[in-house]
Structure formats: C-alpha cells, structure tokens
C-alpha cells in the first residue's frame, strides 16, 4: 500500500482502458471469498466488519463494567440477547398474548384494531407510518402513510414468473414458522397468506413510481383520509396503537390508489385470511428474538434463499446489531471518543468546501441551463449544510427500560421508545441537529427536506478517506462520495427541492426539459447492463437514475475539485502514476465489491443503486478526463463516443 493505493493488488493482464473495475480489483474478485455469513464482500463490508468489532468491545464492556446508567442499559440489552439458555427456555411463549389477540378477530373492525394494537410490537401492518418534515412546508413535521404489508421484498415478487420458485419457498417457510408456533393446518394457512399478500401487492406502486417526489406528495386531512378508506376505522386504529389525534390531523399519503384499493381486501370474506396473515407476521417479527428453531428457519428463507448467504451470522454479531438498533447513538457517543480524531473533521471540511466550489463553477459553465435557473441552483448550493462525524447532541435514552432476562420485551420496548420519540415531533420545531445514521455507520446520505449532506465517522477511513494519502487518492474516493451526496440535491428527485428543503419548482420549463433529456440518455445507458451472477437480468435505469446521477456528478465534480486543490502545481507521478490516474484508480478501489447471485438478483429488483462494477466503469465512460488520463481510444472497451457521453452537472 503506497499513498492509499494498493497497486500490488492490481491486475496487469486487464487494462484500465478496457475494464477499470477489474484492472484494480481483478485478483481480489477472483481470490477473495464472500464470508459465509455475508451476501456481499468488499470495501464497504470490510469497514462494516471493522466497525462491528469495535462496537462489540464497547457493548461487552458495558455488559461487564458499565460506567453509567446508559451503559447499564446497553449492557442489559446485549446480555438479554446473549442469554441463549433463557431464550431457548421460553421458546414461543412470549408470543402468547399477541396470538390470543389475533384469535379473537371476527370482523374487519377487529382486524383494524388488532393492527393498531400490534403497531408497537414491530409486526408488519398494511399501512406504514413515519414522521418527517413536510416536503411542502419543511418547517413542520407531518406523518407520512406508505404502502406496506408484504413478506417478500417487492410487489414484483408476487407477479413475475421468474419469482415463482421464491413464492413456493415462501409458502413453505410461512408454513414451517406457523408449525413451530403450534398452529395446525399450517400449509393451508400459508397458502392463504400468499393469496392475501398477492392481493395487497396488486395495489402496490412499483419501485420507480415510489421514487417520485411529486406523485408521492398528497396532503390529506383526517376527514379526507377517512373518506379514502371508509372501512378502516382510523380512530380505533390509532387509539389501539397509542397514537394521538394530532398525528393524523393532516398527513401525507404517499400512494393514494394503494390506500383506496385496500377496500377490496378489507372484506368480511377475507377476515379468516387476515387472521392467518397476522399470525404469520406476529411470528415473523419476533423470530430473531425467539429460540433457535425460529432463528434458523428465518435465516433459511431470508438469508439463504433470498440472499444466497451460507451461514447465519454469529450470535455476538446479531447481538451487536440488536443493541445498535435500540441505542445506536449511545453506542456512537462512545465510539467517536476513540475513532474520530479532530484532524479528520478538519480535512473533510476542506474537501467539502472544495467540492461545493467545484459544483458552483461547474453550474456556472453549464451550456444547457439558463442564467435564471443557474442563479437558483447557486442559491441552493449556498444553503447546503454539511454534517461530519457525529451529532452535536446525542439522543437521551434514560426513558428506555431494558431487562437482562427479557429479550423480546426489550426489543418491543426499544421499538415503542423510538416510536414515541417520532410521534412527539408533531407540532414541535424541526430538529436540525438530528442525524438519521449513527456515527459507526459506514455510509453517507443527503436529506432533501433539510438540504444537508451527512458523513458518519465510520466511513472516514481507507479506502474512502486516508489522512496519509495524497489529494488525488482522497478526491477519487471520499471526494466522490461527497460529490455524490451533494449531487443528490440535483438529481431527478432532489432537484425538485429548493434550498430551504421545500418541494418547489425552481426551474424554467426549458431547463427542466433539457435536464430530462440528459437523464433519459443516462437511463438508456444503464438499462442494458447485466452484472455477473444475474442470469441475464439487467439494471433498471429508471429505478437507479438518482444514484447514477449522484455517481456521475460526484466523480466529475470531485475531479474538478481536485484540480482546484492542486491549483497550478502538477504533482510528480507516484509509482509511475499521474495524479489524474491515481484519482480514477482510487475511485475503482473504493467500489471493490462482489455479491452472491441470489442477492444480485434481489438488488436488481429492489435496490436504487447499480451493481459496483457499473458504478465504477459506466461512470468513467462519461467523463472526458478519464480518457485523457489513460489515453483511451475507440479501440478500447470503455470507449464511448463523445456525442453519447452524458454530463449533467
């Protein structure tokens, strides 16, 4: 490893001009197995594993030698998960009260009330609820209602012939889980579950439609909500869920036709099927916290069948994940004490400033955008808020109760605790210090309603960020990540929000039309791509367009930012590689990754991100600087004719 690039791991038999991804990662792709308990491997997963080990040390210390009440709660959560003897002893007994509630169902009204009563148990509902800033008025919180109710990953799993084997396996899995919970006629019940979910799935919007910021923004009053689905008693549901009337006084309905369509499945005739559906989802929600028979069967379907993973993750890893899900910021507060040096924030601040300046200059030079829209784009860029490392104020968990001998109870209390925090936002000022990821998360995000870019501490490590690497390597990796997140503010959906976070059109009609022509060309580029292990299934260009715009803009602007940082000084080559070459090689190194075939197919269906090889190769094919850096010619595999290259930002 020299200067952040492991050039000894490159494949000299594959030219960067033909396949940058495999030139940099070829030997690793051939020789590195995917861990038995993972569906993927690569740069992201390596950092995840490293962060997980650090967090394990934190939670085990809290379990053995807590230094505060908060640490005692962390320890109690972990100990309850690791107490295998206790978990095996109680078996499915903790489900009794919920299943008794389901047994009492005799009408649609009972179904609705029972859905509400299970809302705090983590049991799937047919309507999902979350609290977030109002896209039309981002200075207030509002409840959002979204389609839900499926046990398979996506509505297409219920209709596409290619997923018929998955549906058959799903019925077998549901039957086995119901048998474990003590139900008779489990196969017949499972068939009813699939039939009901098929009916629900037929009302679902597809993944592309659910990305649409305009179509999914539909304000409704409480009276209008009731009129959309009269058979659903919203008052009975929310009272059973412990939700106050203010939460539903006005809501955003994301998929109105789905909500209206539920009238055809919430019928007296289907009440027995709803009871079986609820039984199944009660068992499914609790499965990770029950005895090994439930855990193993849950993994057999959701891990082995859907993702192709060979082995269940070790219990300590699942225990760490459980604690992070319940008290992620409390763990993160401890994590950053040792894992986030001040120098990292200083360097990141400099990188972000250069990326924003590069975006500013690039926008000024756009040939397809009018001065009027450029002015508004600059205003939005000026309003960006970066967050680096960790929140300034961490969440208070003092109201969360955890018992070392009550795993499922802890899981449900943690869920209810989190739900109360969310519900309490209604009517309160927007908390602009809130983070939606923990510091130990290896990821980053853009939040359009707050116009903020957020970079948790755990991603600020090699190969994404290396304090000892030269600028070219850092700009090619974390610089492109920064550019990607800024780019989400200007992708097909993020570009519909202004600098205040409001869903408001700040474009001229002509500029929006020009933008859509460019995005259509990018969609077409990705539509025909099929990764290894996909059995011919291709990328959905419309589903992935937002992330593809983020990748393309992110790398292109990161390159401009690198040239800004270097100024008039052209660094000497390192190991025979120019700064521009190191920039693109660093980009390829950051996308090192491989995925099991079953998981590849699942992601192509539901994931808005393209596979790693295309996030690397297809992006550079559109960037002129890549051609200059490696002297790419029409005879090389990555060549794309200049008129076919897309530059949006």
From TrEMBL:
Domain Peptidase M13 N-terminal: 17-391
Record GO terms (molecular function): metal ion binding; metalloendopeptidase activity
Cellular component annotations (GO), alphabetically ordered: plasma membrane
Keywords: Hydrolase, Metal-binding, Metalloprotease, Protease, Zinc
Boundaries of every Peptidase M13 C-terminal domain copy: 443-646
CDD domains in the record: M13
Biological process per Gene Ontology, one example term: protein processing
Cofactor names: Zn(2+)
Keyword ATP-binding: no
Flavoprotein found in the keyword field: no
Family matches, as InterPro entries: MetalloPept_cat_dom_sf (IPR024079), Peptidase_M13 (IPR000718), Peptidase_M13_C (IPR018497), Peptidase_M13_dom_2 (IPR042089), Peptidase_M13_N (IPR008753)
Entry's family note: Belongs to the peptidase M13 family.
Protein name: M13 family peptidase
């Amino acid at each position: 490893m020299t200067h952040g690039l492991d050039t000894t791991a490159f494949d000299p038999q594959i030219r960067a001009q033909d396949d940058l991804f495999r030139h940099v990662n070829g030997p690793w792709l051939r020789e590195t197995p995917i861990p038995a308990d993972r569906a993927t491997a690569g740069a992201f997963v390596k950092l995840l594993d490293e962060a997980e080990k650090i967090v394990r040390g934190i939670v085990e210390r809290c379990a053995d030698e807590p230094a505060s009440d908060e640490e005692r709660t962390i320890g109690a959560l972990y100990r309850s998960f690791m107490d295998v003897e206790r978990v095996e002893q109680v078996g499915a007994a903790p489900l009794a009260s919920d299943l008794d509630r389901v047994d009492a169902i005799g009408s649609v009204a009972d179904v609705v009330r029972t859905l509400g009563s299970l809302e705090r148990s983590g049991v799937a509902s047919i309507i999902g609820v979350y609290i977030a800033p109002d896209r039309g008025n981002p200075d207030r919180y509002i409840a959002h209602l979204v389609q839900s109710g499926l046990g398979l990953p996506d509505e297409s799993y219920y209709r596409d012939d290619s997923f018929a084997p998955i549906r058959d396996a799903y019925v077998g899995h549901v039957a086995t889980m119901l048998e474990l919970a003590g139900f008779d006629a489990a196969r017949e019940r499972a068939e009813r579950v699939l039939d009901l979910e098929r009916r629900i799935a037929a009302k679902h919007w597809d993944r592309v439609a659910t990305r649409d910021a305009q179509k999914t923004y539909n304000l409704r009053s409480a009276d209008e909500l009731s009129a959309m689905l009269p058979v659903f008693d919203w008052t009975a549901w929310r009272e059973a869920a412990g939700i106050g009337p203010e939460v539903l006084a006005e809501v955003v309905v994301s998929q109105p036709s789905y909500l209206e369509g539920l009238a055809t499945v919430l019928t007296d005739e289907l009440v027995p099927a709803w009871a079986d559906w609820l039984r199944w989802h009660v068992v499914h929600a609790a499965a990770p916290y029950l005895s090994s028979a439930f855990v193993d069967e849950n993994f057999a379907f959701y891990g082995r069948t859907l993702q192709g993973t060979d082995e269940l993750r070790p219990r300590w890893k699942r225990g760490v994940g459980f604690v992070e899900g319940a008290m992620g910021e409390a763990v993160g507060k401890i994590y950053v004490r040792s894992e986030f040096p001040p120098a990292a924030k200083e360097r990141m601040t400099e990188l972000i400033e250069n990326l924003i300046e590069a975006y500013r200059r690039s926008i000024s030079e756009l040939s397809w955008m009018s001065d009027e829209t450029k002015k508004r784009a600059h205003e939005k860029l000026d309003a960006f808020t970066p967050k680096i490392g960790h929140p300034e104020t961490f969440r208070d968990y003092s109201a969360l109760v955890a018992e070392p001998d009550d795993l499922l109870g802890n899981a449900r209390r943690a869920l209810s605790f989190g739900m109360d925090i969310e519900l309490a936002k209604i009517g309160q000022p927007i908390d602009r210090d809130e983070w939606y990821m923990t510091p130990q998360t290896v990821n980053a995000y853009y939040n359009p309603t707050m116009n903020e870019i957020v970079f948790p501490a755990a991603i600020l490590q090699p190969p994404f960020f290396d304090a000892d690497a030269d600028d070219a390597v850092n700009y090619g990796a974390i610089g492109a990540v920064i550019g990607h997140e800024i780019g989400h503010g200007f992708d097909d959906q993020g570009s519909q929000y202004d600098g205040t976070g409001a869903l408001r059109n700040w474009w001229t009609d002509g500029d929006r039309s020009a933008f859509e022509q460019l995005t259509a060309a990018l969609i077409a580029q990705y539509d025909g791509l099929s990764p290894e292990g996909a059995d011919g299934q291709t990328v959905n260009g419309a589903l992935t367009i937002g992330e593809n715009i983020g990748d393309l803009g992110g790398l292109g602007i990161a390159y401009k930012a690198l040239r800004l940082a270097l100024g008039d000084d052209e660094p000497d080559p390192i190991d025979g590689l120019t700064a521009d070459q190191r920039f693109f090689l660093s980009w390829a190194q950051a996308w090192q990754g491989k995925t099991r075939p079953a998981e590849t197919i699942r992601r192509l269906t539901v994931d808005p991100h393209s596979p790693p090889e295309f996030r690397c190769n297809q992006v550079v094919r559109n960037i002129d600087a890549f051609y200059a850096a490696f002297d790419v010619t029409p005879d090389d595999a990555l060549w794309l004719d200049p008129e076919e290259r897309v530059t949006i930002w």
